[in-house]
Every structure is written in C-alpha cells, then in structure tokens.
Amino acid sequence: MILGQSTFSVSVTPYLCGEYLFDNAPRNITVYHQGQLVFTAPPEPMQDFKLPNITEGEYKFHFTNSQGKPVVSSLYLSPETREILLCINQADSSNTVSMTRSLRPGDCLFIEYVTSGCFHYEENWLKFYYRKNRLYGEFWVEGKKIRTRSLSASQRAYLAAFEQELRLRANIWGGCTTSDTYTLILNGTTNRVFMDDSCLWSGYSELKKKIFKKK
C-alpha cells in the first residue's frame, strides 16, 4: 500500500454466472495485488466474504472453478466498487488468448448484449467474421440487421481493447438498478458471460460508436 493512499473494502460473492446461482461449495480463494498475496478466504462453504483494506488497481483471484480447474481471474477494483461477482464457472483468464485478436477465417464471434432495469429492457448483438480476408462486423437489433462494417486496423484494435476492459471491469456489483449482461459466443459455443450493474462503464456504447457509428 502506498502511504497516504485511501483504502476501501469490497464484498466478494462466489457465483455461477450465466446460471444465476450462488456457489456454496468450499473453495480455497487467494487474492493477489501487484504480485503480493493480500488475502486468503476461509476454506469453507460461503455465500460471500469481505476483501478489506485494499487500494485501487488490478487484483488477481486464484481459485478452483466448478469444473475442478485452477483459475486466475483478474478484476479492476476502485473505491466505487462495492460488490464483486466472482464467476466460479469461468475458465482461466490470467493468460486467456483474446478471442477478438485470434479470430481467423471461418470463425464467427457473437457478442450478445442485454440491458434491463426498472423501466427498460433492450437486447441486441454484434457479429464478427472474416470474408475475403477482411474482418466484418454486423450490428443487430430485435432480429434485424441494422448495419455492416469492414473493420480497419484501428477498429480491430479497439475491439480487442473492449474485450480486455470487459474482462477486467465486468462482474462487479455497483448497486445500480440497471444490469448489463454480455455473452460471448465463439463458433456456436458460449465462451464467457459477463455482468455489470455499476452504471459506471460505457464500453459497449463507445464500441458501437467507434465501429458502427451508432449511439
């Protein structure tokens, strides 16, 4: 901890993302920041635990997922963060190859976006694929294709940056009444599900503007 830097606490909830279930199995969960062990959760069944006296930055959560595989999940925590969903059924994200950067001819990536709140519900999705060695993106709303774009090098880089930011910032509970869910589907198989109800991140909106010129 840097002298004089403010500290805060975060509630961590082991969760089966995509299944909307709490995970009550006993797990050994350790948390690292800047390569240093900062917390070890008690190894007994729990619904949540408190990560105390931390400072802003990226944290790595080490645990065994619901398939019995060792996982390292990275999340960016700030003083605005109050609660985290720790997705126990996820794959290792410590050295996960970027899906957007590794797309090849024949691949098809869908990003399904659902946002809901007290007075609204919206569902749309993005589709990315290669055609004649160029990466294309499609923007769909309510089953209707709205726009198709060929991605430039800078737009491909922006898409990869969006994926990385999503991995770091999603699955954080912010207490907002609006909840955003992102489902990444590669070649017909759901790869990851991310949730965000912080109302602090506009990454999806900015991605649509950058690639599809849509608000």
Task: List key phrases describing it.
5-stranded mixed sheet, 6-stranded antiparallel sheet, mainly beta, single chain, 215 residues
How does this model look, in words?
By secondary structure, the chain is mainly β. It is built from 2 helices and 15 strands. It has helices at residues 153-169, 203-212; strands spanning 8-16, 21-22, 30-33, 36-40, 49-54, 57-64, 70-77, 83-87, 108-116, 121-131, 134-141, 144-150, 172-173, 179-186, 189-196. The strands form 3 sheets. Strands 12-11-10-9-14-15 form a 6-stranded antiparallel β-sheet, covered by helices on one side. A hairpin with a 2-residue loop joins β3 (30-33) and β4. α1 (153-169) runs antiparallel to α2. The longest helix is centred in the last third of the chain and has 17 residues, at 153-169.
